[in-house]
Amino acid sequence: MASVASPAGAAADTAAAGERGRWSSRAAFLLTAMGAAIGLGNIWRFPYLSYSYGGGAFFIPYLGALFLIGIPLLTTELALGQVYEGGHAVAFGMLSKRFLGLGYGSAWACFIVAAYYNVLLAYACLYFVASFQNPLPWAATAKTAQLCKTAGASAASCAALGTECMWADGECSQALIGKANAYLYETVLEQSDVSGGIGWLVPHIAVAALVVWVICYLSLFKGASLLGYVASTSVVLPFVLLGALIITGLSLPGMEMGVHQYIGRWDLSILSSRPQIWSDAVSQIFFSVGSVWGMMTAYASYNKKGQNVAQDALIVSLSNSACSILAGLAAFSICGHLAYEAGIPLKELPTESMGLAFVSYPIGLAQIPGWGAQLFNVFFFAVLICLGVASSFSFVECPATVLLDTSWFGRVPRWLMVGILSVVGYGLSLVYSTDIGYHLIDASDWYVANVLALSLGLLESVAVGWAARIDVQEGHIGKKAPWVLMCGFVGSIAVATIVQCILLAILPGVTVLIGVCIWLGLLAVSMVASYLLIETKEMMGWKLKLWWLYLGNIETLRKELNHVVAPGKSRWRITPLWSLLIKFFCPLVTCVLVGVSCSENLNSYKGFPSGVQAMGMAMAFSGLALFFAAAIFPDRFGAKSLLKQHKQMHIEPSP
After folding, report:
1. I need a surface site. Which of 168, 254, 337, 561 has the fewest CB within 10 A?
2. What's the pTM value of the predicted model, to 2 decimals?
């Protein structure tokens, strides 16, 4: 694996020859793509979402989002990056210069995520170093907790025995996890009340974040050998360590309590009573699979032209989901053991992302007898770091590739561009390294994942499903019909979603059938009008007219992509199902979910102060502003020179 070519690094190495760099092997690409997909969210976000949304019931929207949205969009990005040999901006700009903004929007999203993601990774680094201490600084034992209860069940008696209660309510049932909770929020985060604003910079977090950014820079600036080493170890090693954690967790007493809560409960009523579950499932797929962020497009741009995209998309996405499911099994088997040792219900344990990763998980591992407590804590935080590093440099790779593809920065050396991004990114990370940093991370993460990422998914599916190759469609049925149908389909969804959200805000409990009826009514009008506006120069039956109206453009694109990424008689081709999902299903679902997310949490997420909400919204809407600015003024964003440069490389797909 030492010969893996770094994406943009390889490009820089071969720029003089006028050729784009290539991965040394398909395995090199797959390992790097899997490393980009599998990250911290697999370890703590997916298990928490599954637990909080009725256990096994969460698998229904999650798997639905994976197969119906995640894999089709990932296939799209891999295919476009491979065919057009460019980053997100080039790949979508080659379809139409108005889509250039998708590249800039995704680059902005990746850069923001990198800034706070590296701070989360800094937490893991601090815990990894601390896990070599004996005794573990967050560890209380079941014996100590029992003594605490016997001593009088007061906070003072717990403190005298070296542990603390989670809540100062006079009860000591939380003694076992109180010390770990205090270590996280008081020692590591130095957390203060978010309503007071930023108070101080936490020095050890700032230093750890600097280390992470240096690692990120070293992984990217040179490429070849170092990136290959990081990619191979950051994907293979975590699966080995995760297997050890699963085997250990399933052998501990009380594990069945956690496993039951994770996959044994099937509260299907949550699917309708808490509609946010659908938005969270799709955003989890976007975040973990890597769709809409642009990193997969960048990596695929260095593949060989004939490499099979359909297989690659399945391998990357299914390995990612397998890691999430296995990580949840490991987490909740250990949490079940912790609840068993503490003598409390599992629901009283901290299971929300940070609480799961830095409180329940490590203190649960600390209950393993003898040297196992320390060893498995080291294993666990090594897993977090390995998974996080690969995702971290992937988030930086996307904006680096997008910028280096432009005429503005095309002559900037690779090492300098990555260095500038790293310095600026670290500066932004310092904001998240303050006493209220985790609250800022929480808000930024929600707005970026549930507003910006979902919106980019909507725009991407509309761009590919409706606007791409529309000129071919117009040549067969005229200009009016395709545009009327596109505006009618997308517009009817948007109008119905907005009206339904307003009605729900005014009249809670109002039936969703109102929105459905509005959508179907507007859609029916546009369907009839578009058919009547068809203009043909040759004799064409009604079936052929309908085919060109509804599928002509995207099926043309699908055949062009297959000609390059699945040549000959390959059995693994992009199928017509991809066309249907990208054109009709993805825009419908993502538009509705953007509406659900905004109506439920916009400017009110977790009750954070207005300043924190404003910061989160600024992160999300700045990315959307970049998209629309580039769509309206593409030439101002270098569309002419950028696309001319890549067209001269003779990389357009053959019809």
Report:
1. 168
2. 0.86
